[in-house]
Amino acid sequence: MQLYHHPFSLDSQKVRLALEENGIDYTSYHINPITAKHMDASFFQMNPSGKLPVFQNGSHILYNTIEIIQYIERIAAVSSIGDDMKLSSREVLEWIHKIQEWNPKYFTLSHVPEKHRLYVSKFLRQVIIARMAEYPDLASAYHLRLRDAYDTEEKLTDPEVIRSSEEHLVRLLDEVETQLNQTSYLAGEEFTMADVMLIPILARLMLLNLENEYLINRPNIADYWRMVQQRPSYKKVVGKYFDGWRRQKTLAKTWCFIRMRNLLKKY
Ligand SMILES: N[C@@H](CCC(=O)N[C@@H](CS)C(=O)NCC(=O)O)C(=O)O
Q1: Which of 5, 7, 121, 217 would give a disulfide with 241, using CB separation of 3.0 to 4.6 Å?
Q2: Is the CB of 89 within 6 Å of ligand 1?
Q3: What is the pLDDT of residues 119-149, one digit of tens each?
Q4: pTM to 2 decimal places
Q5: CA of 52 to the centre of ligand 1 (A)
Q6: Is 53 in the pocket of ligand 1 (CB under 6 A)?
Q7: How many domains does the chain have?
Q8: Which candidate, 197, 184, 199, places its Cα nearest to that of 242?
Q9: What is the distance in A from the centroid of ligand 1 to the CA of 31?
């Protein structure tokens, strides 16, 4: 089994946490969306949306985060005869869908300094244009991605788009806070795939330095956040890249790569 993913991608983190928590081995391929690796023709051919993650098992390829997580659960259930492995309950599934409804894209980009954001989006557009010329048979798929890049830029200038994404997040966090007043984990006293969906959102808020605004002022979430950061799956999927000093290292590596490619005009 292969997973094409990246530590910067929130949906990739969800899937990787699911794989770790279910003890599934897989071959990992990093595709950095900020350095436009998802626009490489070899990856783009398999996945013309360019979105991450992509999960492959033989000829079976999955692109949807929830479908991948449910597939992982089925693999774990099949390979754990007698170990009492269960599939997600209806309650867990409800949380999974509710959490997936929040799209982190505009919220995240609106909290990245404009100077950096515009630099990266221009780089991405240049890469797409270069690939279109190199691979004429993929030009129409690349063209869609180019339009999407312009559309994203335009949406980010609309305060209503940002406001509604923030409000959606606040509603979700308030609901989580109420739930965590009654149970230790999101869907009861046991860690489930609902928690796997939530943790990357909390990690994203930490990465954007928004812990005080969104997490610390919700005491149940703050306690939960401290607890789940102790899990080996969290350390492997998120902590290794973003805890403490590692965050600067991870961000600097990507930033240097883009600066170099831009300087050399190598798209
Ligand atoms: N296909 C996924 C959505 C994946 C998605 O939006 N991935 C983001 C990262 S979390 C991505 O690849 N963004 C890069 C891009 O759009 O260029 C799903 O429906 O579950």
Answers
A1: 7
A2: no
A3: 999 999 999 999 999 999 999 999 999 999 9
A4: 0.95
A5: 5
A6: no
A7: 1
A8: 199
A9: 12
